[in-house]
Design goal:
The chain is α/β, with parallel strands linked by helices. The protein is built from 12 helices and 12 strands. The N and C termini lie far apart (53 Å).
Length: 346
């Protein structure tokens, strides 16, 4: 369903004249939002609509705050809203309120309830499947993947993406591993993930756990801290997602087994193009699939592919795409690891 305007309302915005774009991101604990998403979306909007103005807010993982931020942006006369929701169901009120004011909403990275104009994300079940496959392969290197328990640290229950990752991982792992402990993690909190892994290690024994599925890199950092504090040696394979700088460095150092790299530039480019099209009242022609959200609305969508990053593939993935400068990634403590991974070859 599109967002229409009444007969007495002004015509759609135009990129030639410029308009205001609202951008709402959910939090900043996960490094990607401020490091990649915000600047990339703003850059792409400037390229498509040089006279447009971006009004930005970050909800810091507070759904009520995000609703207040949306109200503020609507009051400032935005023509379109790019929304990465804190809570998909709660965000439905934002989407409905925007529609009532003739403002289309582009759901970015996380789905939202309500009459969303378009949606761009990565293929999230595939993310979970790839994490599961990588963990299973790492476990198999040490023998029977069922020889000991694994721990599963899933994402925030308010984030529909987290359910997709979890479903994808279980589709690969169920029946092939022994899940000794599993927990959803509010707010994707690394500190909470650390506490959850501490509970798991107390229950299962620090030296008995043979692998840890973590849905993202921030939680992987908490899991690894718990493993190290309780003397797990060697560290079992730990998964992650987002290819954060610290995570890629942990992968190079052999502390974290893998992460998932999402080509953020493509997602941001798509979101910007969707936003301009929606503001101008045009459908986004490249939306190849239709996804149904929790409110039953069928939304034109784009699902982007993802890439597994291990120590062996850092060079051909994040480095090949120029995500991090070599000097930033391979500081002195990691020079030997970077050399072994072929990153210092000239």
């Amino acid at each position: 369903m599109g967002c229409g305007r009444g007969s007495g309302e002004p015509p759609r915005a135009s990129a030639a004249a410029g308009f205001r774009v609202g951008l709402l991101l959910p939090e900043s604990k996960t490094a990607r939002y401020e490091t990649f998403d915000r600047p990339l979306i703003e850059r792409n909007l400037r390229a498509l609509c040089p006279r447009c103005t971006v009004l930005y807010q970050n909800a810091q993982q507070d759904a009520a705050r995000q609703q207040a931020e949306a109200d503020s942006l609507l009051a400032q006369g935005i023509a379109v809203l790019i929304l990465d929701s804190v809570d998909a169901r709660a965000a439905g009120a934002i989407v409905v309120r925007a529609r009532e004011q003739g403002v289309p909403v582009v759901a970015f990275d996380r789905f939202a309830s309500g009459p969303v104009a378009s949606f761009v994300t990565f293929d999230n079940e595939t993310v979970g499947r790839e994490q599961g496959r990588a963990l299973l392969a790492a476990l198999a290197k040490g023998g029977d993947p069922r020889r000991g328990p694994i721990v599963m640290i899933d994402g925030a229950p308010t984030d529909p993406n987290a359910a997709d990752y979890k479903r994808g991982a279980h589709a690969v792992l169920d029946g092939k591993v022994v899940v000794g402990f599993e927990s959803d993690t509010p707010d994707w909190s690394p500190d909470q993930a650390q506490r959850e892994v501490e509970q798991a290690l107390t229950k299962l024994g620090a030296r008995s756990v043979i692998g840890v599925y973590c849905a993202n890199d921030g939680m992987a950092s908490g899991a690894i801290a718990a493993l190290e504090e309780q003397g797990a040696s060697p560290l079992p394979p730990v998964t992650g997602q987002d290819a954060e700088l610290a995570a890629v460095q942990r992968v190079l150092a052999g502390v974290q087994y893998m992460t998932i790299y999402k080509p953020y530039a493509r997602e941001a480019e798509t979101a910007a193009a969707m936003a301009v099209a929606a503001a101008e009242g045009r459908p986004y022609a490249q939306a190849a699939v239709v996804r149904q959200n929790a409110s039953g609305d069928r939304v034109p969508s784009v699902l982007l592919p993802v890439v597994v990053v291990t120590r062996e593939t850092v060079k051909s993935t994040v480095m090949a795409d120029g995500i991090y400068p070599l000097a930033q990634l391979c500081g002195e403590p990691l020079r030997a690891a970077c050399a072994q991974a072929g990153l210092l070859d000239r």
